[in-house]
Design a protein that fits this description.
The complex is a heterodimer of chains A (188) and B (266).
Chain A (H helix, E strand, L loop, with lengths): L2 H11 L3 H21 L4 H21 L8 H25 L9 H23 L3 H11 L4 H8 L4 H21 L1 H6 L3
Helix pairs in contact in A: 1-3, 2-3, 2-4, 3-4, 6-8, 7-8
Chain B lengths: L6 H6 L5 H13 L1 H18 L14 H11 L1 H18 L8 H33 L16 H11 L3 H14 L6 H12 L3 H12 L9 H12 L2 H11 L8 H12 L1
Helix pairs in contact in B: 2-3, 6-11, 7-8, 8-9, 9-10, 9-11, 10-11, 11-12, 12-13
Classes of the chains: A mainly alpha (188), B mainly alpha (266).
Amino acid sequence: MPEVHKDLLQKLANGDRKTIQEIYSSVFPKVLGYVSKNNGEKEDAEDIFQKVLLQIIARYKVKAFKIDSSLEGYVFSASRNLWRRELNKQKRIVTNDKVLEHSKESEDMTMAILEQEKWELFQEKLTELSDNCKQLLQLFFQKVPYKDIVEKLGYNTDNVVRQRVFNCKSQLTKLIKNDSRYNQIKEL
Amino acid sequence: MKDYPIEIDDYLSGNMSTSEKKAFEERLDTDPALAEELILQKDMLSIYEDQEWLEGDKNALKTEEAKQLKSFFESEEASDLKTTIREVVSENKYKPYNKSFWFIGIAASIALLITISLFVFKDNSYDKLYVEYIRIEEIPSLVTRGVDNNKLLEDAQLLFEEKKYQQAISIFTSYQSNNNSIEPLSYIYLGVAYLELKDFDNALNQFELLKTSNTLQSKKANWYKAMVYLKENKKRKLVNILKGILSDENNYKFKEAQKLLEKIDK
């Protein structure tokens, strides 16, 4: 991890106001943009932003935690995930009988981290594939029909694409399974 | 290379006949390894499709890492950090000017002082406005709505009407936690009960549930949220939400929102 990050994380974990302010200035507008585009209000964005910073601090304190990309990029992507999670939760609260099961906040925050870690593992493994596989799988996961993939990537037939998708997914599956973190989160 | 059974793809994409599907599901019951492979493939789809967030199983809370994280969140240190972050966030709300123009800063502080004094002065009038606009009698009755009147709700409404809010709250709360399909009006009743007792967070929570309930009553949520901010004296939030209501004249309480905004914006 670049020294700058380490230093920033350390300061953040100490509750250094200047650091928090810097992160706020550079990332919050983007978080606000994303949340407002997705049925949220400014208060929601603030809540998410605050929770994500606390998430990062918790991970930094509890175990070795590194950020490979920029801290700003990381905070934004984690905020986006947390807001998607919040939207899911709202949906579930309405359809189920869990309205007042205010499952303790600490538990919820912990679950959010475990889910985020799983997400990160999966994303990281995807980047380890060959460019060709990555491109193919990205189209596949976006539910682009096989026949369109044939045209886009210049394959011969649907069947070749199908076979190739399976191979790439196999590789990806293997990468995930071989990572020691996978066994820890399997129960998730 | 074959690192997972290819049938899983057919199963997940719906490319199986009814009998194949049945046979596959029977195998799942007896073959835990296959079941585990299926879960992984499902999770991969869900994460990489990047639509809905993939939620985890609460069993994961039993791991050592989870326990440590949880105890961190429960620590005083975490709560101090949370407060600090919140403070920084809210400082930014009132920082509209470029800091280098210090004289504007001073002007702003003076303006702020004036605003603060206005706020203090206006507190009373906010209370009066709340009383004027809350219109508790307009909340539709729970009792006459269906043939199958829910006894619990009847009782709760009665207590509510007698202004025994604390008791009403406990009945509505237990109603909501014990039922799968929740009468949306109960969010309004419970929310207003909390509001009357000045429990603003819980009140907002109910109106948020109302908003996301996707029922005919949902459209009322913003108005009730406005009532919370009004009673709470939160002018900025109140103005924002009223402006939201004014964005479409079909919105619930459009006219009232217009009048209220005029009164508080003076």
